[in-house]
Structures are given as C-alpha cells and as structure tokens.
UniProtKB/TrEMBL annotation:
<dbReference type="InterPro" id="IPR036116">
    <property type="entry name" value="FN3_sf"/>
</dbReference>
<dbReference type="InterPro" id="IPR008979">
    <property type="entry name" value="Galactose-bd-like_sf"/>
</dbReference>
<keyword id="KW-0119">Carbohydrate metabolism</keyword>
<feature type="domain" description="Fibronectin type-III">
    <location>
        <begin position="182"/>
        <end position="263"/>
    </location>
</feature>
<feature type="signal peptide">
    <location>
        <begin position="1"/>
        <end position="39"/>
    </location>
</feature>
<keyword id="KW-0732">Signal</keyword>
<dbReference type="GO" id="GO:0000272">
    <property type="term" value="P:polysaccharide catabolic process"/>
</dbReference>
<keyword id="KW-0326">Glycosidase</keyword>
<dbReference type="GO" id="GO:0008061">
    <property type="term" value="F:chitin binding"/>
</dbReference>
<dbReference type="InterPro" id="IPR013783">
    <property type="entry name" value="Ig-like_fold"/>
</dbReference>
<dbReference type="InterPro" id="IPR001223">
    <property type="entry name" value="Glyco_hydro18_cat"/>
</dbReference>
<dbReference type="InterPro" id="IPR011583">
    <property type="entry name" value="Chitinase_II/V-like_cat"/>
</dbReference>
<dbReference type="InterPro" id="IPR001579">
    <property type="entry name" value="Glyco_hydro_18_chit_AS"/>
</dbReference>
<dbReference type="InterPro" id="IPR003305">
    <property type="entry name" value="CenC_carb-bd"/>
</dbReference>
<dbReference type="Pfam" id="PF02018">
    <property type="entry name" value="CBM_4_9"/>
</dbReference>
<dbReference type="Pfam" id="PF00041">
    <property type="entry name" value="fn3"/>
</dbReference>
<keyword id="KW-0378">Hydrolase</keyword>
Length: 607
C-alpha cells in the first residue's frame, strides 16, 4: 500500500466568512448565502510537499531530498550562503479582504516562513533552532485590491542547510484557474555539434514555457521555440516542454530525441583515451630542480612548458625566456631543447606553451593587446614547433566589469578579447591545435554561488570569470584541468562546502564540470556540462608542490568514483564517466623530486 501524506484538510482553519455563514444558518429564517458570497476554503499552495521537485517554486539555492522528510517522500533542502538566504518562493492567487492561514514544517537553524504582498501587513514566522520537524504558522488578511500573494521560506546568511515540507495556505480560493494543458507538436529543428533548435504548438492560456533536457529544466521562454546550446558533440539528448500560467505549470509534453553532430572543433587530437598532463619548469628553477625535456618519462602525454609571460600586464606581448645557465646549471641548449620537442612529438606526445602562471598576469584590455597576443604566441609556437597553447591565467588577469552578468554574452574587454584571440589561434592552426586551460576553482566552480560583482555589488569581480571563456570555446577546447589545489572551500552541487585534502573535494569539483550548474544560483542561467574527454583533474604532485596534496589512495578513490561509481565517499556524483580524460599535475619537476609517485600511480591505474 502507498504511504500517503496525511490529508491537509484535517484540522483545517475556517475563514471568517465560513464561520459567519454557519452562524447565520443557525438563525431561524435564514436559509443560505448565495454561492457568490461563500467561497470554500482550499489549500492554495502548489506542490507544497515538494513531491514534484521544485516545480512551482523559485529558489536561489535549493533542491529536494528524500531524507529527512515530514510527509510523503520528499522535502526541500536549501543552504544559505554569505550573501544569499536561500529563499524559495511561490506566488498564489487569493481573494481580496479574505483571511488566510499559512503553515509549514521546518527544521534547521534560522528558518523563516512568510507571506509578502498581502496588501495589509506582511507576516512571517520563524524559529532559531529546530533540531526536528517544527510547525510554523501565521495568518494574514488580504487588502481590498489584493489578488496575489507571495509565500516564501528562507534561512539566514552563511548558516547551515534548512529543510521545509508540507507548506500550505488555507483560505478562500482565488478562482478556478488551472494550469494549462501540456504542449503538443514538439519537434527538433536545426541540430549542430553543440545545440538543438526546438519548436512546439502554442497552448491556450499559457503565458510561458519551460524546456527540459534529460528531465532537467534548462530555460524558460515566452514563445513557442527555443535553442538549447552548450551540448556535447555526437550525443543523444531527450527534450520535453511544459506550459505555464499564474495557476502553475502543466505536465511535460511527449519527449523528442535529437543527436548532436560530430563537430569539427576541439576534440582530443592525438591524445590517448586517458592522458597524464604535467607542467615542466622551463623558464625558472626552484626547490624541485631543473628537469631536461628529454628526461621527462614517456608516461606524460601532454607537457606544458611553464611559462610564457608578458612584457607588461596589458601589453599582450608574450615572451618565452628559457632558464639561464646561471640559474639552471644543467639546462640544455636551444638546439637540444627543440630536438627533444620533436622526439616527444614523434612518440605521440603533445608539447604546449603555457601562458601565465602565478607571476604572469595577462590583461588584454584593448584590441591592440589582443592582436599582439596572437602574433607573439604564434611566434613562440612556430619557433619551437609546438602543438598548441595552455591558458593558465591567475591572480587579476580575468575579472568581470560591473553589470556583466551573463556568461553566455560577456561584455568585459579582457574576457571578450581573450576569447577572440584564442578563436583566432585555433582558426590559424586548425583542428590539430591543442587548446587547454588550467583555471583555479575560484574562477570556475565558485561561480555556482557567485558571479562577478553580484546583483547588489560588493562581490569579488574575478569570481567565476573563466566561465564565459570556457563556454565560448567549448567546441575548440581540448582539455580543461581546473587546479583543485591552493583553493578555499567551494560549495558543490549538494549545496555543501567541500575542502581540499581528500577525494571528496576532487569528486565534487569534477562532478560540477561534468553535470553543469546554475551560475550564481540562477536556474535559468545554467553553465552546460563539458564532455568527459575534455576534463582532467588538477592535483599537486607532492606535498611540496602546493596545498591540497592527496595520497595515491585518495587519487585512486577519486577515479573509482567518477569512472566506475564505486569507492565513493560522502559525495555522490550525478553520473558515471568512464571517458574522463585523466589527470593534470603541478608539476613534472615536483613529481621527479618525490620519486615519481604521481606518475607511477597513474600508470598503475590506467595501465
């Protein structure tokens, strides 16, 4: 037997009008009020038990969970951030001059339940601490012209997750409006390697439509067509559409399936199914010592020469100055270095110039700087016969201007010019050109919570600043290997903060890249997932290389969880990706210093 949620009509408060009607009917000679004068009480909240996910709710940072629940099989979990109270809201239709009772069950620290737009006095009820389910209740009377009220739950800034379930608003119904019928005639139109155009028939009474990709809402539109972009090449997707009006959202339409084309972009030119990427210190020496390119073991499939740096922050003029003999006594000659590049390439390896690094700030603020960047990088690639380019912009190289809030359509010059420069280089060298990026988590995954200066300003404008670059170049991008090190705590898709030091951090950060995520918590502004063959996980090679080192056992657990869905810890990823490209490390030199521990573990895992 199904375990049904207790009926919400039990113990339901009655409106003032209903009580008055009952009293009048008890008076001799009074038979009944007209049907127009008496409105039956009803529960006006749609999906108040969150059994249909977040349908009918608008949340800044929320999801549904199967435990803990108060009734049924689902409840809301929402986690406030430093500048977000994790509000979930729903607007309902009400009657003027009517009394309503709002109630719901909550648990957690600082949970609020309230109503705004009442036309009289907005109300709320809250608890500072609810270790178990606690009922919150409040009442209000609508104003003389009020026909809509917004109900909400929220927590408090920077506190832990809160839960809500069985939210109800009892009082006179606002009318007989119903959600529209499901759309019909859904069909796929133009299909590219990264997008699918959809169209469907108009629905009477609908004021908008929502598009679902593989069961997940990706966008809302006002018309009867949409283009879903940011898709992986040569991949099948299932699409559905719903119609919506003030009364709610319809059921989903029949599904249509479309497969994206193979594409001619980034791909993985010449890389093995699982690749090991390493940075080689070629312009400087440090405690790890200088390693000659010819001495790099064959396990390394992509070797990033670190670093090309600008003559000044805004010049765009990139120079590659190899380590001098005075600093690196065992440095090879230019002739031997170039011969080693050719030998590596003959063995199937890719050798790239990496631009930036910790000390190499690059800001392409002008079109002139952009053009200089293209010409100077091209010269390095041509002089040394390299396979491509790695972008390792850190520090203050990338930041977003105020009001640049759409990662799909950036307007900040340093972002726009970098995208243009990289597309120009890709077009110049063709499909075989290898393009990789190594951003820090602050510039990518932290965009799940914050993007640029934020809606109200005050945020770090660098936050999430790599997202428009990655998105614009996803069809040209060979590898993205985010630096999962030297990072602060980052919120994952489970709305929990994850810190360096174990497999869970790598699993959570990589899951975000392969699943996609709403930018700054906006469900209508989703950063689409990358292909698994485009993703490698960045890790320090040893304790000397950087903060965030994990043991070989934790590296193995990370790979097991992401590629096999086994050996997972407290974080459960949203998929299984056996085609995950591999690992990146800082650095080859530090791995040599640690007796090649990182390389040996990679070889043992992938064979």
């Amino acid at each position: 037997m199904d375990r049904a949620r207790p009926a919400r009509s039990a113990g339901r408060p009655r409106s003032v009008l209903a009580l008055l009607t009952a009293a009048l009917l008890a008076v001799p000679g009074v038979t009944a009020l007209s049907s127009a004068a008496v409105a039956a009480d009803a529960d006006l909240v749609r999906n108040g038990g969150f059994e249909s996910g977040l349908d009918n709710w608008s949340c800044t940072a929320g999801k549904t969970v199967g435990s803990p629940v108060h009734g049924g099989s689902a409840a809301l979990q929402a986690t406030p951030a430093g500048s977000d109270n994790a509000q979930c809201a729903q607007t309902v239709t009400v009657q003027p001059n009517a009394q309503y009772t709002l109630s719901g069950y909550v648990r957690g620290s600082y949970v609020y339940l309230g109503a705004s737009g009442t036309g009289t006095t907005d109300v709320s009820s809250w608890t500072q601490s609810a270790p178990d389910w606690q009922k919150l209740t409040t009442t209000f009377t609508t104003g003389a012209a009020t026909t809509k009220v917004t109900l909400y739950t929220h927590g408090w800034y920077g506190t832990g997750a809160y839960y809500a379930d069985d939210v109800s608003l009892v009082g006179p119904g606002g009318g007989t409006a119903q959600p529209p019928a499901p759309p019909t005639g859904l069909k796929a139109g133009t299909v590219t390697s990264s997008s699918v155009a959809l169209s469907w028939s108009a629905v009477t009474g609908a004021t908008g439509y929502a598009v679902y990709r593989d069961g997940v809402k990706t966008q809302t539109v006002s018309g009867t067509s949409a283009t879903v972009s940011g898709l992986a090449a040569a991949t099948a997707y299932s699409f559905q559409v719903t119609a919506a009006n003030d009364a709610g959202e319809s059921a989903k339409s029949a599904a249509v399936t479309a497969t994206t084309s193979a594409g001619t972009g980034g791909g993985s030119p010449g890389l093995p199914a699982h690749a090991l990427v390493g940075y080689l210190h070629t312009t400087f020496a440090n405690g790890s010592g200088y390693t000659r390119l010819a001495d790099v073991p064959d396990s390394w499939d992509v070797i990033d020469l670190a670093f090309g740096e600008p003559t000044s922050v805004t010049s765009g003029d990139i120079r590659f100055n190899r380590c001098p003999v005075t600093e690196c006594p065992n440095v090879e000659s230019d002739a031997d270095f170039k011969a080693a590049i050719k030998a590596k390439q003959a063995a199937g390896k890719k050798v790239l110039i990496s631009i930036g690094g910790q000390n190499g700030q690059v800001q392409l603020t002008t079109a002139a700087a952009r053009d200089t960047f293209v010409s100077s990088v091209s010269k390095i690639i041509d002089d040394y016969g390299l396979d491509g380019l790695d972008i390792d912009f850190e520090g203050h190289s990338l930041s977003l201007n105020t009001n640049d809030t759409d990662f799909r359509n950036p307007t900040t010059p340093v972002i726009v010019n970098l995208i243009s420069a990289l597309k120009t280089l890709k077009a110049k060298y063709g499909a075989a050109f290898v393009l990789t990026m190594a951003p820090e988590t602050f510039f990518v995954q932290n965009g799940y919570q914050f993007y640029g200066t934020g809606k109200w300003g005050g945020q770090d404008p660098r936050c999430g600043a790599y997202l428009p670059v990655i998105h614009a170049l996803r069809d040209d991008l060979t590898l993205l290997h985010v630096q999962d090190y030297n990072s602060g705590p980052i919120m994952g898709l489970d709305n929990q903060y994850h810190s360096m030091g174990g497999a869970d951090f790598h699993i959570a950060m990589t899951d975000m890249l392969l699943t996609g995520f709403p930018v700054a918590g906006d469900p209508n502004n989703v950063f689409p997932p990358l292909r698994p063959d485009q993703v490698a996980i960045g890790m320090p090679a040893s304790t000397n290389a950087g903060n965030g080192y994990v043991s070989p056992a934790e590296v193995t657990r990370t790979l097991d969880c992401l590629t096999k869905r086994t050996n997972c810890g407290s974080y459960t990823p949203h998929g299984t990706w056996p085609a995950l490209r591999g690992l990146m490390t800082w650095s080859v030199n530090w791995d040599r210093y640690a007796n090649w521990e990182f390389q040996k573990n990679f070889d043992a895992y992938f064979g």
